[in-house]
């Protein structure tokens, strides 16, 4: 199981269990809470009604007194109320009054008059000066439908102290059942939203963490495979610190290996020019004719230029290879770069008696490093000049190709031998110039290939059917 899935499942399990128990507590507390609120309301109402019923109970006219008449009129009323989306169209109260012995002398439904209620908890406790209440089945034997009874003492209105009876106010618990069910549904619905929102937050957090860890993993695999890869994006957390530590370690390890490779390559390439310089210098120490002395001195200067060119090219190549990714990226126009290149190369073209023909569109926008691209295109043009015979025309073209722009430089030289086509982009591999027979450092085309890679493009070389070679550099538009 992947780390991201483990993190998400762990987060969701913790939040889900916590939400489940919280919802269960809330749902479990709704029913008793609503009933307690109803009981408190019944207590208030029972005491109010007990005061109102006291005169008729003392006078012995509970059945046909003002209290009974007013209560009957009230129970015939239609409240026409809408309580929390539930309509209320009738009065649910039931009122019973007992005398001081607990015998029912009034029942708002007219059912239990004369019954001895002195053993019922509400009447029993009230007659003894305590708070009396009970909950009993509405229909004997049916525990699913219960009625709450709350009693209040009826005192003599003359002295306000003598207990002359008990008034019990009853209300079916079913009357508040819709409110309890609605509250429970609301809690469950909101709890479901809470769990869903928590799951979404957990998913986003897991994705964020897994994305950072996955990026480090991909970076480590690329480094292990020797692929050039940009460092992990900076982050202000432990993952960011780990990424920076990995990048620092990579730089140190690759730097050591690169220095070794660099020194080996440079040493190898310097042996031949140094041997030629040493041989010429030894000969110059002997008496020589002036012509021979001039020839050996020119050879030393030529080999010195070769060494300088090799070192300069190797340094440029080392700079782009060490980065592994493009350091500076900006919007630029390949057509503008090509025009600048053609203008700068004018004197060299004139000296070599060559002509440069440009075929450029209005614009060729790309994203990249103008300095590196100018150097890369300059290397391609240098090769075209070196391999073209006097009086030839070099073709410079830019056109749209796939999702990018392709720049080609075609010369009219002898072309590239088949055996060398696969090796021209190797470091230090070069072909003899047709005019002088000299070889270059063999680092120009590897530099072009590295610049193309840094820009997400590619470079290649092929022979033209009409003769000569054609070097191409393709760059994506973005």
From TrEMBL:
Membrane in keyword set: yes
PROSITE patterns hit by this protein: HAMP, HIS_KIN
Boundaries of every Histidine kinase domain copy: 265-478
Subcellular location: Cell membrane
Keywords annotated in UniProt: Cell membrane, Kinase, Membrane, Phosphoprotein, Transferase, Transmembrane, Transmembrane helix, Two-component regulatory system
Topology relative to the membrane: Multi-pass membrane protein
Segments passing through the bilayer: 7-27, 191-210
Molecular functions per Gene Ontology: phosphorelay sensor kinase activity
Domain of life: Bacteria
Catalyzed reactions per annotation: ATP + protein L-histidine = ADP + protein N-phospho-L-histidine
GO terms under cellular component: plasma membrane
HAMP domain boundaries: 207-258
EC number(s) from the headed UniProt entry: 2.7.13.3
The protein's enzyme class: transferase
InterPro entries in the cross-refs: HAMP_dom, HATPase_C_sf, HATPase_dom, His_kinase_dom, HisK_dim/P_dom, HisK_dim/P_sf, Sensor-like_sf, Sig_transdc_His_kin-like_C
Pfam families named in the record: HAMP, HATPase_c, HisKA
The name this protein goes by in its record: histidine kinase
Gene source species: Stenotrophomonas daejeonensis
